[in-house]
Amino acid sequence: MSDKITAALKVRPSARQLRWQKLEFYGFIHFGMNTFTDQEWGDGKAPARLFNPAALDAGQWAQTFKNAGMRGLILTCKHHDGFCLWPSRYTEYSVKNSPWQGGRGDVVKEAAEACAKEGLAFGIYLSPWDRHEASYGDSSRYNQFFLNQLRELLTGYGPIFSVWLDGACGEGPNGKRQEYDWEAYYALIRELRPEAVISVVGPDVRWCGNEAGHCRESEWSVVPAALQLAERIQEASQKVDDGKFSRRIKSTDEDLGSREAIAGAEELVWYPAEVNTSIRPGWFYHASEDDKVRPLEELLEIYYNSVGGNANFLLNVPPDQRGLIHENDLNCLLELGEVLRETFRHNLAADSLPKTCLEFDLGEVRLLDRVVLGEEIELGQRVEAFTLYFRQSGEWLKCYEGTTIGYKRICRLEPVQAKAIRLEITLARANPYISQFEVYLSSDRERCR
Ligand code: FUL
């Protein structure tokens, strides 16, 4: 075995990464000043009085997410325009100067409480890029401002599962560029919320590399350590042609973790993927996109390829100017939840007899089209290729070929009538530990037609 493979086998998830991985599917709420100005990137000049949702109900967001099968919610507490959804002590540009609830409202509080009530994990998005704040561009002053805001969010709203940071770094109101002090941000997050993963521009959760919902065929959680800096470096160096840009490992590359991909890496880390995309074309709500909500089959496709392909799925659902998830999105999410619940309700292999550790006798012939596999990732990620076979009575027939498994692989097969299923690991970095083997018949085929 090569040294690199031996090294890869030693890379394991942290406790916070393990907890995060088990959330599988959770939602993003993009809501703020942009919702009222019909913009995607506000310039920080829209007056606070424009923020005035008539019927904001974070309970509706949380219930909808829960019904859709999600296990958490991340809220854009502050987007690039700098408008804060909580009454921050450090700026006047927030809900406290809006007419909503007479300036006494706090969207972050309402969202955090609604999540707690529904049993959802709560996470925060706080944009480092701030187009309103005057100190932006005066690096140390703004970094302190950002830390102050982080502290407010990390101490005032209960447990936080994810601090989602993006690397956008544009010009501030004074035309100057800001040098973010990422290490100081991370240190504060670790100090105040050691349970939280730091996502995207952060060491714990890797951006999948696109915002379209595209997933990799083989998603590895063990990848070159350089990727932990990818979102920072890309942003910083796209502007400078230092000759290194083209040689850099990018989060967009199709293969990040195969033997070939890690061969040249100096260091390897556990850095699992999160797939983020929006249910509509934009991240924020625009009435003009009411008829552009992604259809159920598209969401299912992304779900299967992300959650079913060793990545977590972060689906954005932007509330409208009322402060509610629009009926079109809501109906689609309810249907998604129903399909997922129905599909994964009855594990046909629950009472099966494991013949060997990788062969399951279902006891009787069953119609099935989903096989869910999982590795014991506390021991790392090991499987590189596998094949599934089924048997009715006579010979074994091949029904699926796959590559990585990781935390979870949902294999979608053409429906087969099978009495037994066999999993053959054809390539692995060491003895595989398969911790999950479930069999289902999906409920979505009729609906998506
Ligand atoms: C990006 C932002 O620029 C978009 O507006 C959106 O918030 C997306 C999730 O992250 O960096």
List the helices and strands and how they pair.
Blueprint lengths: L2 H7 L5 H7 L3 E5 L3 H5 L20 H10 L4 E7 L28 H12 L2 E6 L12 H18 L5 E4 L16 H11 L4 E4 L5 E2 L14 E3 L5 H8 L21 H5 L4 E3 L2 E6 L17 H11 L4 E6 L10 H17 L9 E2 L4 E17 L7 E9 L5 E6 L6 E20 L5 E7 L3 H4 L2
Parallel strand pairs: 1-2, 1-10, 2-3, 3-4, 4-5, 6-9, 9-10
Antiparallel strand pairs: 7-8, 11-12, 12-15, 12-16, 13-14, 13-15
The chain binds beta-L-fucopyranose.
Characterization of this structure:
The chain is an alpha/beta fold. The chain has 2 domains: 341 residues, TIM Barrel; 94 residues, Jelly Rolls (Sandwich). It is 26% helix and 24% strand. The strands form 3 sheets. Strands 5-4-3-2-1-10-9-6 form an 8-stranded parallel beta sheet, with helices on both faces. Strands 11, 12, 13, 14, 15 and 16 form a 6-stranded antiparallel beta sheet that branches. About 2% of the residues have low confidence. The structure holds beta-L-fucopyranose (FUL). The site of beta-L-fucopyranose has 4 residues, from loops.
Give the tags.
single chain; 449 residues; alpha/beta; TIM Barrel; Jelly Rolls; 2 domains; 6-stranded antiparallel β-sheet; 12 helices; 24% strand; binds beta-L-fucopyranose
Q: Gap between N and C termini, in Å?
A: 48 Å
The number of strands is: 16
Radius of gyration: 23 Å
Helical percent range? 25-40%
Instruction: Note poorly predicted spans.
Output: 237-247
